[in-house]
Write a structure and sequence with these properties.
Length: 295
């Protein structure tokens, strides 16, 4: 992926996640269940929560699940440009490229499924660790999927407290290289909390505390809540998940207008029926977002 302007990379990526949830050849194990799962991630809380069995049953991107090899390869393709913007050849043109917001225009497009699987894909990297932050405090989709919605302290607890530290709230998991931060209880003033200096300091700490860490924020849909517009302004990269064939083009354009042009923006087409040489999956890059408007 290349760009002549800072943080202006636009890419289109398509994956049939609807098919992925229902079918696929069982994947062979690549990591022993007895392997020490926390050696690659800095110590946080004293316990390690068990996610592997739950994610395997949900056919997510973990060893032993029913997720097929085609879908696994799609996530490998999707994560490569994101990694390049964070740590690779294009990192110099993307500020805080290791901070990534996964969002959608409206509810029901598959953003949480994509966010969790991307986090799992990044956790498979040999040189990086990943933190998944559930910022959707209303739906708590990622927290509910992982069974951690009642865990405290949480994302909202961190924002509401002047004494809690990041290390107090992060949860280690039995997935090597993955830590998670649950959403917490809904808050009447969540938009103001996300826009606060406390949130800015939290994001800066997450971005700089560990040089190899990727932080994925599972945010609410852009057009549903005002806090997401604040959140996408705090990260370096934004992945917009679009339900192919259902979400109107005008809705997608409205959502894109809410994302600052200097951000690296990737579009993931979810539940796509597009045909290609790979048997139903399509993947391509488009020129930098905003470039046409400048010419």
């Amino acid at each position: 992926m290349s760009s002549n302007e800072k943080g202006s990379t636009k890419s289109i990526m398509s994956i049939d996640l609807g098919t992925a949830k229902q079918s696929g050849m069982p994947a062979g194990k690549t990591t022993s269940d007895n392997e020490n799962p926390v050696s690659r991630f800095p110590r946080t809380t004293s316990e390690s929560i068990k996610l592997l069995r739950c994610l395997r049953e949900k056919n997510m991107l973990v060893p032993g699940s029913g997720l097929g090899p085609d879908i696994k390869n799609e996530y490998r393709r999707i994560k490569r440009p994101l990694l390049s913007n964070a740590f690779g050849k294009t990192a110099s043109i993307v500020d805080q490229g290791n901070l990534m917001a996964i969002t959608s225009s409206v509810p029901g497009e598959g953003k949480t499924y994509t966010a969790v699987n991307l986090a799992l894909a990044f956790a498979q990297e040999r040189d990086n660790t990943v933190l998944l932050v559930d910022c959707d405090v209303t739906k708590q989709g990622a927290s509910r999927m992982l069974g951690i919605e009642r865990r405290r302290p949480s994302f909202t607890d961190l924002l509401a407290s002047d004494t809690l530290s990041v290390g107090d709230a992060l949860l280690r998991t039995d997935i090597p290289g993955l830590a998670v931060l649950p959403a917490g209880k809904p808050h009447e003033y969540i938009t103001e909390m996300v826009a606060s200096q406390r949130m800015a300091r939290l994001v800066n700490e997450l971005a700089s505390r560990y040089s190899d860490r990727i932080i994925i924020f599972d945010t609410p849909p852009l057009l549903s809540t005002p806090e997401t517009q604040v959140l996408v302004g705090l990260v370096g990269q934004v992945v917009l998940v679009i339900e192919a064939g259902k979400t109107p083009h005008t809705i997608v354009e409205d959502a894109l207008e809410m994302i600052p042009n200097e951000k690296a923006i990737g579009l993931v087409l979810n539940k796509s029926d597009s045909l290609s040489s790979r048997g139903g999956y399509y993947y391509n890059y488009y020129e930098p977002y905003g470039k046409k408007d400048d010419e």
